[in-house]
Structures are given as C-alpha cells and as structure tokens.
Specification:
Shape: globular
Radius of gyration: 11 Å
Low-confidence stretches: none
Strand content: under 5%
Structural class: mainly alpha
Helix content: over 70%
Distance between the termini: 12 Å
Order of helices and strands: HHHHH
Number of strands: 0
C-alpha cells in the first residue's frame, strides 16, 4: 500500500501480481489493485478487479467500500 500512496504504480502492481501468483486473490489485495488502477487512471482495470472482488468476495468489507466509492 505504501507504493500506491507514493504513486509508484508499477512497483506496487508487480508486487501484487507476485502475491496473487503465490497466494491467490484476497479481498484486500484486490481492493488495493482497485485503488492503484483508479489512481493510475485505468478504469477498465478498475472494473476488471472490481468484478473479481464481487464474484469472489461479495460479502467482504472491501467490496462494500468499493460500492461506496471509498477508494
């Protein structure tokens, strides 16, 4: 998350991809990707990760935050 806050999008994206490859998707990591892609102004990627979050974690706090536009 520090890299996202510091606008180091490529570094953050790379770390998250490695995390997902090793551990699979988690609600928190998908939400972080949504934040990252939103800040990077990539709406199609925001939608992609939001759909994954909705399908895999529909009851999560992260999904509720996404629906409330808290990213």
């Amino acid at each position: 998350r520090l890299e996202v806050k510091d606008n180091q999008f490529n570094d953050a994206r790379l770390r998250l991809f490695k995390f997902h490859k090793r551990y699979g998707y988690r609600a928190g990591s998908l939400y972080t990707l949504i934040e990252l892609e939103h800040k990077a102004e990539r709406p199609s990627e925001v939608a992609r990760y939001a759909n994954l979050l909705a399908r895999q974690y529909p009851e999560s706090n992260e999904y509720r935050q996404y629906l409330a536009n808290e990213y």
